[in-house]
Fold this protein.
Amino acid sequence: MKKGLLALLLAVTLAAPVFAVEKGSMEIVPKVGYVIEPLLMEDYYGDYCGYKQESTFSLGADFYYYVMNNLGAGVGVNYVFDSKFKEDWDKQDSLGATNIYVAVKPVFELQENKFIDKIYFLGQLGYCMTRYENKEYFFSSKKYNENGLYWAIGAGVEKCNIVVELVYSVNYFEIEDWNESFTNRRTAINAGYKFSI
């Protein structure tokens, strides 16, 4: 499925008849997001178990430089606020993350559309710093800060420099004390404002 999405993005980028952004342009996009019930997947000796978290919020910002007329390349950071677990896990425990990444952003202009000026796609790859707090660690609390791979894909729309996007992201990390691997999956709705430089 990942190969199919990449092929689709490449085909749309190369075939786009309207260039939405001039080569050499730069922009900064601060964003706020609503993260819909993140899912923690635990790899327990080959068996995978899923645990839902409460919905939470995120803050982030992206910087892009347009290397082609409709293709931006840049960097970004995203802070996901900690949220507690809902079921089948200790409900007092919480999990959050900070993600730092490089990104690509193909952008396409919609002509004669009253509601949307541009549509775009996102691809992000980087490093995650996961925060996990175990509230019942031998009658006390213990905090873990684990690092790992981060990636995300998404799509968005722009109108008068206001952007709205849907992003699916995945964090990988391990808790060495437990000798277990985890995957944190998130779907977020982001809104922000684009500042052209």
User: Anything to note?
Assistant: The radius of gyration is 19 Å.
